[in-house]
Amino acid sequence: MSQFQQDIDAIATLKSTHKGTWEGINPDFAARMKAQNRFKTGLDIARYTAAIMRKDMAEYDADPAQYTQSLGCWHGFVGQQKMLAVKKHQGTTSKSYLYLSGWMVAALRSEFGPLPDQSMHEKTSVASLIEELYTFLRQADAQELGKLFKQLDEARAQGQDTTAIEQQIDNFETHVVPIIADIDAGFGNEEATYLLAKKMIEAGACCIQIENQVSDAKQCGHQDGKVTVPHEDFLAKINAVRYAFLELGVDDGVIVARTDSLGAGLTQKIPVSTQPGDLAAKYNAFLDTQEVTSIDELEEGDLTLKQNNKLVKPVRLPNGLFRFKADTGVDRVVLDCITSLQHGADLLWIETEKPHVGQIAEMVNAIREVVPDAKLVYNNSPSFNWTLNFRQQVFDAWQQQGQDVSHYDRAKLMSAQYDETELALEADQRIQSFQQDAAREAGIFHHLITLPTYHTTALSTDNLAKGYFGEEGMLAYVKGVQRKEIREGLACVKHQAMAGSDLGDTHKEYFSGEAALKASGDDNTMNQFDV
């Protein structure tokens, strides 16, 4: 007996105990609604998706070809359409996640209006977006299962065997997938981080990404002026997130520790070392210092440290920040990552300035000398000029191999004049295989793009506006949008149904029977798309 049929029988038994007062309740309909709402709370989602991530991580450890991917989504509808598309084209949601980008929350979801990625937006908007995304994904489940229930009704009406349809219902693959959620630098001290992490987990987040920047000086990872915190401060926030997971019963929740040290040359705080070689001493060893041999070399208010039996003065900028030594970024990244993994983090995020497999692999290999199963979440960022970066990588490789590159101008390789050249084609091949190559060679478990739908929205809107307000007029929409939706089988062409009108009609029929006032009659113009 299928689970669906078991639910029908169980509800029928329950109905019978209410001595006729539940006569308006149809057990079949109630079982359908139960199937269409598999996840009752955000914590149900967090526990379910955490188990998926842990399984995927183990499978990646066994085979690096089993990497995972996601796209950043700034609205529930965007996330819903993404997962509908993934399931339609890939046949499964396996290994596909959603990414919640702090950048896009700041740019698109703040009540202040568009903001830079500097943790100035309302922190509650992060948890609200997680809840919104899962609301839309659960609605996708309900809509797709609703289609199966219609098939079930048709089969029953024709006296056909319904076993195969009931199996499809029982084995329905949900659109609910893990979300990797960006908590920035924690939006305050460790208690603030804990409180926000709880809200995010309660909304459904199984995976929280936190970075080692100073919270009130937070900058986008691809901008200048980044300031890191000492390891002790960062580890306290990792602990805070773990406590939040444990308190809420998501025991296998995933923490991604992000380091911005590769591009961050400043620190706000000099930690106190209590014994030689401790974390504070290692952090301070990277400080740019000047040896002090006489008190006369000190200015009013200068600070001094004892390092290697010498008295040194850290270089301090007019804003009070301290500078790290030049060319120490890689070493600081490696130390950050090892330390985070040794103190409770599960995955790493190394923010780089370019997408270069060799550069990433160099750091990951150094980390794996200490933590062999270290693996990354990596930002395939739109902040990189992918075309220029990879054309320059090919140029450099060819030059090192002794090939003639005299007919290429390295600084101008972005030019359209090179688009059909051998070098450009080789670069595009490398871009196409970047995720596979980096998963295999550089320990990248999860590939994401932080804000792709920000750019696709801008591009599609520009194309539509150009035609609609120009000579094409209405043809710009019909040819460029609606006809493509029909030809490519997008459910969204029936936007009324996508917004829930069919679900609503079904529920009205459950609740009111033949008296239900439904929207899906003959005069509904959405019927024009049933062709």
Automatic annotation (TrEMBL):
Keywords in alphabetical order: Lyase, Magnesium, Metal-binding
Keyword set includes Metal-binding: yes
Catalytic activity: D-threo-isocitrate = glyoxylate + succinate
Active-site residues, as the UniProt record annotates them: C220
Binding positions for Mg(2+) per the UniProt entry: D182
Requisite cofactors: Mg(2+)
Entry-linked InterPro entries: ICL/PEPM, Isocitrate_lyase, Pyrv/PenolPyrv_kinase-like_dom, Pyrv_kinase-like_dom_sf
Name of the protein described by the UniProt record: Isocitrate lyase
Organism: Salinimonas marina
